[in-house]
Amino acid sequence: MSLQRIAVVGAGAWGTALANCAARAGRDVMLWARDAAMVAELTATRENPRLPGIRLDERVAATGAIADVAHADAVLLAVPAQDSRTAATALAPRSKSGTPVITCAKGIERGTHCFMTEIIAEAIPGALPAILSGPSFAADVARGLPTAVTLACADEATAAALSRALGSQTFRPYHTTDVRGVEIGGAAKNVLAIAAGIVAGRKLGASATAALTTRGFAELARFGRALGARSETLTGLSGLGDLILTCSSPQSRNFSLGIALGEGRAPDAKLAEGAFTARALTELATEKGIEMPIATAVAAVLDGKLSVDQAIESLLTRPFRAEG
User: Fold this and answer.
1) Mean pLDDT over residues 95-109, rounded?
2) How far is CA 178 from CA 20, 42, 224, in A?
3) Which of 218, 194, 220 is nearest to 281 (CA)?
4) What's this model's pTM, rounded to 2 decimal places?
């Protein structure tokens, strides 16, 4: 499988970071942006205002023509989860059969409850759906700081080839065929990170943060096992690893959203994937009969059904039970 030409659809901070990452691995990269002004700025200044101080690699070319993506050997779909279907649908007429399309979003589609690779499979029937996920911040990846992630595809040979194509000395993708396990880790941890941010914003202490993260992981694992995820995926980079990172750093938009909620400030939820995934996650959990009290409390707060204090009280007054 030749994977020299890589297209990145989406020129936000994450898409730009991944473009630099692929270029650092020796690939020729086409970075597609919807906004013509962004294409012009990337071309003229070689810098994305969402990643100030980080120069675009010389191997990366910016474009506003979706037709340019058709020549790629693999496509990284780096748009928000709730925009993935629109982007995939636009890409479909120009996608060659058998081309790997790797979603880089972490979420569940509202309304349909579809995971990201399911959206790719529906919108681009000839594509090879894959997902890239794990503990990674855009600024770190763009700068070439050491990062390890998980890349999943149902076809093991494709997963391994994509990992080699994108991997470098500082960016290490570990491959797996457990696509659903990787998707669950990324989607659930964003919702749980909002809860961790609320704990931090309410200044409930380090002990409460540790308890929240641990019990949150129990929810993530319970949900994952019910949907067929492998235990090693849930305890790996895209599950526990990403949860630890996202629940502990203000660099996480989801954690920062939670801090704002905990402090009683009006949060800006536009860029926090967990704010859009929370309801879909808890609805899916209810459909499957899976208990996720922390995620459910977060969804209730975001939907205005509970105040932060009421959500905290609902968790603290739950019946005592055996750990598990």
Assistant:
1) 96
2) 26, 36, 11
3) 220
4) 0.95
Return the SS3 of 99. Answer: coil
DSSP three-state, residue 292: coil
DSSP 83: G
Question: In 3D, which of 276, 268, 318, 212 has the Cα closest to residue 84?
Answer: 276
The answer to whether the CB of 199 falls within 8 A of the CB of 315 is: no
- Cβ contacts of residue 101 below 8 Å, gap of 6+? 74, 75, 77, 88, 91, 95, 120, 124, 127, 128, 129, 130
Backbone region of residue 2 per phi and psi (left: phi > 0; alpha: psi in -120 to 50; beta: other values)? beta
d(CA 14, CA 18): 6
Cα torsion 89, 95, 99, 103: sign: negative
For residue 96, what is the DSSP state?
Answer: P
pLDDT single digits (tens) 255-299: 999 999 999 998 776 779 999 999 999 999 999 999 999 999 999
Q: Tokens 């007054």 — which residue? A: 317
| Token code pair at residue 262 | 């905990």
Beta pairing partners, 115? 108
Contact 46, 52 (CB under 8 A): no
Element (H, E) at 40: helix 36-45
Q: Do residues 230 and 147 make contact, with C-beta atoms less than 8 angstroms apart?
A: no
Token pair in block for residue 109? 């589609």
- Determine the angle formed by the axes of helices 84-91 and 116-123, rounding to 10 degrees: 30
- Would you state the structure tokens that stand for residue 93, as one six-digit string? 């007429």
Task: Supply the Cα-derived Rg of the chain in whole angstroms.
Answer: 19
Question: Where in the sequence numbering do the catalytic residues fall?
Answer: 189
Report pLDDT digits (tens) over 13-22.
999 999 999 9
Question: Alpha-carbon distance 212 to 218, whole Å?
Answer: 10
